[in-house]
């Protein structure tokens, strides 16, 4: 494996998944606090009330990062922890928590990579203005972003506005399996549109007011699986391309080209909103890097009649794409039933590079869930070790083939609240005992630690 000298080796978490302390020190509720209260929405009706109690364990957790030789930690800010109502009043105790975390990271030579929105919208904004369905949310989000730039930007040099707008739109507003639990075939496109505008506005503000003084970078993270055509027939190749467009180009085309992909415009009619000329100009070039979360691969075929697939992993609203998805039965599956296909990662990196003219790409999440067990104080997650070996080899090949991959973040630093799956699915490279909250490095953490040290 070969990686550039200053490659960013990191690991990631998100606020609601790890912090806990849901009502501590003045934090306001988010839509995930509310969603977890609805019986049946989350596995065993679990919540993020305590999660990993990261809120009270930052010294311990940063020490574990340091042990592994990680160069960067990607975490997200809980909007309602620092602005309990989403706007107006600022909660200084919440600010203090993130400020302390940032200082602790820097004291240990670990770069903070901060995501502003990883799905935990302040509940007040859902109730008062209908969340991402209201166009005015872009100004509310930009005020929140400014508070973060103001308070943390002296020390934070890497910002990510949004994590996975696709998940918010499709799982939150299309299929209703994530907060706010809405089911619709048009709201996903409206919510996604407002997220894009919110992204562009906050980037504009950062660039005009903060970037020249603070010298940071700002971008957005989108998620995408690879779609491999079922056959060499042109219609299947088109179908695979269309599936990728409905997945990642939905959000990346506006940011690189100022408009949605033609395949979406053609199929969605009035359900796909339009950007004004001003919004287009604001969107074009509004990211300093291509943030990518990648987990799996599926096979795509042209469809005259669409078979309704699984809830997860369909990209776009499946009925809008005319694509049928399937998996090769020989592929190994993780506990999420996501297939392990390292070459899909390489092909996706190459596809993105070609379409968007070789941008700097940062993999801001890659990882897998397995049914880990703590035995005599150790977790032997050999499958996860092989997963990372495979995907990192694929990344190294992509770099050799001309992809400008500049960083890689392991999802996740530790087992945590895996959204609708609760604590049942373990993605961590550190095992968390959710009774005692004790952390144990898994075999994968040891393997990755050695690898990072040998490569950097
Ligand atoms: C990402 N899908 O979520 C998130 O950024 C993390 O918070 C999460 O824990 C991780 O991946 C593992 O799930 C996704 O349905 C959720 O394709 C669902 C999908 C993709 C990513």
Automatic annotation (TrEMBL):
Stored Gene3D superfamilies: Glycosidases
Listed PROSITE patterns: GLYCOSYL_HYDROL_F1_2
Binding site for substrate: 17, 118, 163, 295, 411, 418-419
Biological-process GO terms, alphabetical: cellulose catabolic process
EC number per UniProt: 3.2.1.21
Keywords, comma-separated and alphabetical: Carbohydrate metabolism, Cellulose degradation, Glycosidase, Hydrolase, Polysaccharide degradation
Catalytic activity: Hydrolysis of terminal, non-reducing beta-D-glucosyl residues with release of beta-D-glucose
Active site per UniProt: 164 (proton donor), 365 (nucleophile)
Secreted as UniProt keyword: no
GO molecular function list: beta-glucosidase activity
Family as reported in the entry's similarity comment: Belongs to the glycosyl hydrolase 1 family.
Name used for this protein in its record: Beta-glucosidase
């Amino acid at each position: 494996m070969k990686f550039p000298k200053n490659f960013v080796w990191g690991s990631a978490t998100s606020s609601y998944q790890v912090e806990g302390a849901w009502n501590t020190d003045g934090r306001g509720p988010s839509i995930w606090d509310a969603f977890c209260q609805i019986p049946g929405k989350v596995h065993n009706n679990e919540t993020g009330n305590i999660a990993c109690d990261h809120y009270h364990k930052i010294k311990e957790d940063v020490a574990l990062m340091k042990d592994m030789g990680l160069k960067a930690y990607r975490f997200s800010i809980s909007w309602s922890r620092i602005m309990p109502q989403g706007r107006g009043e600022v909660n200084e105790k919440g600010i203090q928590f993130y400020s302390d975390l940032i200082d602790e990271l820097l004291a240990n030579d670990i770069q903070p990579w901060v995501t502003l929105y990883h799905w935990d919208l302040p509940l007040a904004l859902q109730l008062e203005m209908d969340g991402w369905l209201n166009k005015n949310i872009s100004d509310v989000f930009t005020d929140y972003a400014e508070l973060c730039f103001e308070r943390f930007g002296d020390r934070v040099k890497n910002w990510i506005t949004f994590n996975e707008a696709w998940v918010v739109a499709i799982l939150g507003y299309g299929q209703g399996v994530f907060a706010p639990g809405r089911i619709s075939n048009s709201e996903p496109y409206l919510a996604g549109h407002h997220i894009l505008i919110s992204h562009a506005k906050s980037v504009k503000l950062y660039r005009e007011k903060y970037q020249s003084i603070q010298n940071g970078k700002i971008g957005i993270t989108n998620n995408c699986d690879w779609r491999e055509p079922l056959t060499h027939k042109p219609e299947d190749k088109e179908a695979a391309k269309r599936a990728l467009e409905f997945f990642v180009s939905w959000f990346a085309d506006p940011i690189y080209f100022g408009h949605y992909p033609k395949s979406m415009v053609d199929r969605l009619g009035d359900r796909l909103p339009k950007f004004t000329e001003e919004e287009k100009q604001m969107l074009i070039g509004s990211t300093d890097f291509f943030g990518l979360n990648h987990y799996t691969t599926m096979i795509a075929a042209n469809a005259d009649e669409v078979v309704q697939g699984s809830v997860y992993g369909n990209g776009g609203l499946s009925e809008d794409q005319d694509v049928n998805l399937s998996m090769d039965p020989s592929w190994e599956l993780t506990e999420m039933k996501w297939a392990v296909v390292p070459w899909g990662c390489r092909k996706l990196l190459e596809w993105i590079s070609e379409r968007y003219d070789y941008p700097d790409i940062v993999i801001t999440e890659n990882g897998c869930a397995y049914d880990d067990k703590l035995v005599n104080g150790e977790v032997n997650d050999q499958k996860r070790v092989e997963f990372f070996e495979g995907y990192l080899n694929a990344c190294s090949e992509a770099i050799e083939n001309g992809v400008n991959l500049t960083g890689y973040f392991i999802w996740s630093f530790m087992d945590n609240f895996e959204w609708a799956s609760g604590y049942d699915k373990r993605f961590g490279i550190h095992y968390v005992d959710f009774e005692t909250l004790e952390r144990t490095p898994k075999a994968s953490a040891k393997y990755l630690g050695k690898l990072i040290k040998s490569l950097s």
